[in-house]
Amino acid sequence: MDFAGLIGKFRANRPLTEQEREYRLDQQERLDVAPHYQLGVIEMNSTSLEMVDKWYGERGTITAVMLTIVVGVIVFFGAMLHLALTRAPDAVGGGDDVGLLVFLAVLSAPLLAAAGWALRKEMFAYTHYPLQFNRITRTVHVFRPDGITLSVPWNDVFFTLAPVDHVYKFWNILGHVMADDGLTVKESFALSMTSEGSPDGVKMMRSHWEFVRRYMEDGPGALHAQVQFCMPIKKRRETFHVAMHRLMIEGTGGARLSNPLQVFGLLFNLLVLPFRLLAIYTSKIPRWPAEVEARSAAPDNDPYAIAGSPNGDRVAVFPAAAQAAGVRFTGAPDDPLAVPKVAAVSGRNAPASSATRGRNKRG
Q1: pLDDT tens for residues 258-316?
Q2: 224 and 302 in one domain?
Q3: Judging by beta carbons within 10 Å of its beta carbon (0-12, 13-18, 19+), is residue 121 exposed, middle or buried?
Q4: Closest to 54 (Cα-Cα) out of 167, 264, 200, 204
Q5: What is the phi-psi region of residue 308: left when phi exceeds 0, alpha when psi lies from -120 to 50, beta otherwise?
Q6: What is the phi-psi region of residue 236: left when phi exceeds 0, alpha when psi lies from -120 to 50, beta otherwise?
Q7: Which end of the chain is more exposed for a tag (fewer CB within 10 A), N or C?
Q8: Is the pLDDT reported for residue 159 higher than 90?
Q9: Is residue 229 part of a domain?
Q10: Cα(first)–Cα(last) distance of the chain, in Å?
Q11: Which residues pair with 143 in a beta bridge?
């Protein structure tokens, strides 16, 4: 579970690290990997590509954990209060009840405050935090967690692969907004793909980056056929069906149940489902500023304009134009891990870390 950047901001006003330079993702460099959309697309057309944030796939987890803590503390304190009020004054320990309750209240107050702070990251916030890539204006738009939009030229962003959690080994595709000196990171944002820093995990992140990069540099023509599902959250909240489908995919990694960890992940995410819906239905739908929305609109009769049906199935915005141009879903995207492995990898292509298979987070 990677919540870096949501719980705790990415470090800013700092110099680039040597590792970030080593693993830089150049906008003009075509990588020898199969591009993969990783279930991250909300809408795509000839003008812009809108994607989910990296926290979207596991939304509801923070709510589930923190509400469990809050309810547990309240139930425990309520039980102690009930015991103090109903126990006879002359019972053993009866005179210490008030002092014990005060002690427990003081002890639990910081825990409840921290849980409430974390809950606000998902509840009464925004349903998601989209990213938009406009290939006509050559601009990246990021909907920040505080609701303020960041807009930065595509070519000015320093993209790189970087670790964001040294405990669980999570890596992100980070976009750095640089100061005028070209050396100082002013602000960072993450693309919708996160994974472990293993060679396989990095390969999946590179394939996701290549999907975004090729859209911006080459257009939607070579990518549209692989997008089967578009997250239907542009102007509506998730339905129960979409929420359950998403969490099932997160729990199994998109594969069949073949080991106990996948079974556990699926069961855990099914328990998270009501909390995900609670978080989403107490939150606002993000809205882009009017000028961003106007510049991202699909041209009339754009055959590449696709969005999601209420159940998430890809649909053409202009069906007649799409049919005439032969634009349709033709098959699942290539598996990035099916690309033949080379004998040795170095430099920006893979970090020196565990060779265990990375986990696909799909947005």
Answers
A1: 566 667 767 887 899 999 999 999 999 999 999 999 999 999 999 999 999 999 999 99
A2: yes
A3: middle
A4: 204
A5: beta
A6: beta
A7: N
A8: yes
A9: yes
A10: 12
A11: 149
Is 92 in the same domain as 179?
Answer: no
Which amino acid type is present at position 129? Y
pTM confidence score: 0.86
CA dihedral 299, 238, 241, 49 (to 10 degrees): 30
What residues are paired with 313 via a beta bridge? Answer: 229
3-state class (DSSP) for residue 43: strand
CA distance 361 to 119: 22
Is 178 domain-assigned?
A: yes
DSSP 126: B
Residue 217 lies in a domain: yes
In a domain, 346, yes or no: no
Taking residues 218-245, report their average pLDDT: 93
Domain range for 22? 14-60+123-236+285-339
DSSP-assigned states of every residue in 156-213:
GEEEEEEEEETTTTEEEEEEEEEPTTSSEEEEEEEEEEEEESSHHHHHHHHHHHHHHH
Question: How far apart, in whole angstroms, are the C-alpha atoms of residue 201 and residue 209?
Answer: 13
CA distance 187 to 206: 22
Secondary structure element (H or E) that encloses residue 92, with its range: none
Token pair of 66, please? 């923190």
Q: What is the pLDDT of residues 80-101, one digit of tens each?
A: 887 777 775 655 555 566 777 7
DSSP string, 71-87: HHHHHHHHHHHHHHHHS
| DSSP letter assigned to residue 328 | -
Angle (nearest 5°) at CA 132 between 295 and 158: 115
